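Run log, item B.
One chain of 96 residues. Sequence copied directly from the ordering sheet:
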Amino acid sequence: MTEKRKYRTYTQEFKDKAVRLVLEHNYSLKEASETVGVTAKILSNWKVKYEKNQAEGALRPEERAELMRLRRENKRLQQEHEILKKASAFFAKEMK
């Protein structure tokens, strides 16, 4: 029976710091990968994704989650506002 291979997972913060070694501190991919303990290919992949995100002005996952939460809340509040507007118009009509 063969065992499943366990892959290491890295936080986004760790990946960003590793990529900044290459971009900001002028490490080569090989030097930076040896420093942080990953392969040069993995670091290269992280670098491509990092640059793509920077170019697009992409949101971090926690920012994206907050944006989605705020959009849902905004939609709910707009619906409540519409209901209250209709209710106040109804009661104003009844008062006359």
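Observations after the first pass:
- Residues 61-95 form the longest helix (35 residues).
- The two ends are 83 Å apart (CA to CA).
Flagged for discussion on Thursday.
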